[in-house]
């Protein structure tokens, strides 16, 4: 047997791209995805896709997860190499996979909850229950003022008096007084999809001070955004040399915001615990994106942060696309994130929206198979945490910078569902994307890129595994396909990604979109391994194909385009159409294509090398900008320099990383 070794960076060997006729489209009129990063239950987009397609990790995937979760670290002394953090022993690279594969796989994906600071290890929730004293209860406080505060709360049952030997006061609650006594109650949902157990943001270069002071959702966003930039082979610093900083927008959102900070704020006040003075800011939904702007990107452009429940990331991409098409930005940072805490676990459970753990186990279903979209035995979604960042750019900027295009965003729009009586009930609002059929905005946007209804081969569905959503979404897409003029029997391959990732709410659509980019790149469609038997209610589907094992179409059927649907509580529907990056190539002048492709491949390779270097003790992935990018030796104050930069359309960042007039 040959031991597996992590391969050196070598770019991506994509499948043979589909043939594409030249397009009469100006690249400046296109919006393209030029980078993406995620942090979810499967780790990064790289490790998530490996598990999606192969159900196992490559040597590189094992090493990446072992590194990010603190199982191994690189040391140069006494001998350069990977060291086990628990034992301190040097681990030969050839033994990394055998030693850590099963361990990291056990710590990712859908699994029983582990203690992460927000969920108790015994899977219980604290509860303050009401009891009545059967006799007087007396305690001591240090001041009269404090004693009188107890009287104010319950004057009928409270008596106070000073103690003779000092300044202390005695407080007595009389027999019959109602008091609250803490106890624990068992959670009915004890399986979910947390981010990888042991994930450590400091290995990315995030400082311990930042880790301790900002909400963890903001930390995850920082890591994913750094990954999005660097894996595409460029940095925010380089970006600002090409565009004015007010032309860089941020449209990232979150469904629920900083949930652990919310816990700290409310519980801290109620229980009298110490809490940071600025904890309120970490609760605000927009602050998840604000940290990325102020501590990494340094942009001055549009800031709009959607809150659209489980459709947040799709709405974020719509906002980013709109900003670029309206001329308000040349690059937009989109995406979404959410956390997983007791409050959400209990709340979704009370709504019967999530899969009850004991009921699923009683059916003989393994924990990791609880999320089972379209299956007869599905019983609700499996809650997850995490999300990701998507870099959207105007096509001509991608061309000038040589940025790697992952997909062309042909269409991105959100919809409502009309009059309803239930907030979580699914609807058909996104069907309006097909308004006008072959003359709809969606059809015309695809046709402009050389894509027909039959060229849409893949749909990454929301597919939450709830009884109501999956049939509703199936009907939506069947009707949409008919409206666009899809041929009878033309297959639509379905990706039900949440079978692996669980449902990350606001971050879910990022996993879907980046996953679809990978599918278009490699020509391999991942399966739903939790699907045992398709629900009879879906049997009328004319086009759907549900896979139970990976389908490597590659050059047999080159994939040209796919759709993503993302649906959120409150009747928010998002639909995004992604087209193969070959459409972008077809929009370029023939004489520009080879040079662009060479430069974009170099950026991808540079991104892979950057990650490999950081893992092996090189420069950290995250590097905070030095100062505010102004010249402190300049005669003018920083504020005057900043004002001059903002008013000067030609202002760009210089090689020494400051804005010069």
| Share of β-strand residues | 15-25%
What is the C-level CATH assignment of the largest domain?
A: Alpha Beta
Radius of gyration based on Cα positions = 27 Å
Number of helices: 21
CATH topology of the largest domain: Peroxisomal Thiolase, Chain A, domain 1
Number of domains: 3
Mean pLDDT: 95
As residue ranges, the low-confidence spans are none
Distance from first to last alpha carbon:
63 Å
Number of strands: 23
CATH structural architecture of the largest domain: 3-Layer(aba) Sandwich
- Main sheet record: 11 strands, mixed
Shape call:
globular
What does the model show?
There is one protein chain. The chain has 661 residues and is of the alpha+beta class. The protein has 21 helices and 23 strands. The strands form 6 sheets. Strands 1, 12, 13, 14, 15, 16, 17, 18, 20, 22 and 23 form an 11-stranded mixed beta sheet that branches. It is globular. This is Beta-ketoacyl synthase, C-terminal domain protein. Residues 621-642 have a biased composition (Basic and acidic residues).
């Amino acid at each position: 047997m040959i031991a597996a070794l992590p391969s050196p960076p070598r770019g991506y060997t994509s499948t043979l791209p589909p043939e594409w006729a030249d397009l009469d489209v100006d690249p400046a009129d296109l919006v393209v995805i030029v980078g993406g990063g995620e942090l979810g239950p499967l780790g990064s987009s790289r490790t998530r896709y490996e598990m999606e397609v192969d159900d196992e990790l490559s040597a590189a995937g094992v090493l990446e997860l072992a590194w990010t979760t603190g199982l191994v670290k690189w040391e140069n002394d006494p001998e350069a190499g990977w060291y086990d953090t628990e034992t301190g022993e040097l681990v030969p690279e050839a033994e990394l996979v055998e030693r850590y594969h099963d361990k990291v796989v056990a710590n990712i994906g859908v699994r029983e909850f582990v203690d992460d600071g927000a969920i108790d290890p015994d899977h219980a929730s604290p509860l303050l229950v009401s009891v009545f004293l059967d006799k007087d209860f007396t305690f001591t406080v240090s001041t009269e003022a404090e004693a009188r505060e107890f009287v104010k709360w319950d004057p009928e049952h409270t008596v106070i008096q000073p103690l003779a030997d000092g300044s202390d006061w005695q407080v007595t609650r009389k027999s019959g007084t109602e008091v609250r006594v803490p106890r624990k109650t068992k959670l009915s949902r004890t399986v979910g999809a947390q981010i990888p157990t042991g994930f450590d943001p400091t290995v990315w270069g995030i400082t311990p001070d930042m880790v301790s002071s900002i909400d963890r959702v903001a930390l995850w966003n920082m890591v994913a955004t750094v990954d999005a930039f660097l894996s595409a082979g460029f940095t925010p610093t380089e970006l600002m040399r090409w565009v004015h900083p007010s032309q860089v927008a941020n449209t990232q959102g979150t469904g629920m915001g900083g949930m652990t900070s919310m816990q700290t704020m409310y519980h801290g006040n109620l229980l009298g615990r110490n809490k940071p003075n600025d904890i309120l800011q970490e609760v605000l939904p927009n602050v998840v994106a604000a940290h990325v702007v102020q501590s990494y990107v340094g942009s001055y452009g549009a800031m709009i942060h959607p809150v659209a429940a489980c459709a947040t990331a799709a709405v974020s991409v719509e906002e980013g696309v709109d900003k670029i098409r309206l001329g308000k930005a040349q690059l937009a940072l989109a995406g979404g994130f959410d956390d997983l805490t007791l409050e959400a676990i209990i709340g979704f459970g009370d709504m019967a929206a999530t899969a009850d753990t004991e009921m699923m186990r009683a059916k003989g279903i393994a924990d990791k198979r609880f999320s089972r979209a379209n299956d007869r035995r599905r019983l609700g979604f499996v809650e997850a945490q995490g999300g990701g960042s998507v870099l959207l750019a105007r096509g001509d900027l991608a061309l000038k910078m040589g940025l790697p295009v992952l997909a062309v965003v042909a269409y991105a729009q959100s919809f409502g569902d009309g009059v309803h009586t239930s907030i979580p009930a699914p609807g058909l609002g996104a069907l309006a994307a097909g308004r006008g059929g072959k003359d709809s905005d969606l059809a015309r946007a695809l046709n402009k890129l050389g894509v027909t209804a039959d060229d849409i081969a893949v749909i990454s569905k929301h597919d939450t595994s709830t009884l109501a959503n999956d049939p509703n979404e199936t009907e939506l897409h069947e009707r949409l396909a008919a409206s666009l003029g899809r041929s009878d029997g033309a297959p639509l391959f379905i990706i039900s990604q949440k079978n692996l990732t669980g449902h990350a709410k606001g971050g879910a659509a990022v996993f879907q979109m980046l996953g679809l980019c990978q599918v278009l790149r490699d020509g391999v469609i991942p399966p739903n391994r939790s699907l045992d038997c398709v629900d009879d209610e879906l049997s009328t589907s004319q086009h759907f194909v549900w896979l139970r094992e990976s389908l490597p179409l590659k050059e047999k059927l080159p994939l040209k385009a796919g759709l993503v649907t993302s649906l959120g509580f409150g009747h928010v529907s998002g639909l995004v159409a992604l087209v193969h990056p070959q459409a972008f190539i077809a929009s370029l002048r023939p004489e520009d294509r080879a040079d662009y492709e060479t430069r974009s491949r170099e950026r991808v390779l540079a991104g892979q090398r950057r990650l490999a270097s950081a893992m092996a003790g090189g420069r950290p992935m995250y590097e905070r900008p030095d100062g505010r990018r102004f010249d402190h030796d300049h005669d003018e104050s920083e504020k005057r320099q900043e004002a001059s930069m903002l008013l000067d359309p030609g202002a760009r960042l210089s090689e020494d990383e400051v804005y010069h007039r």
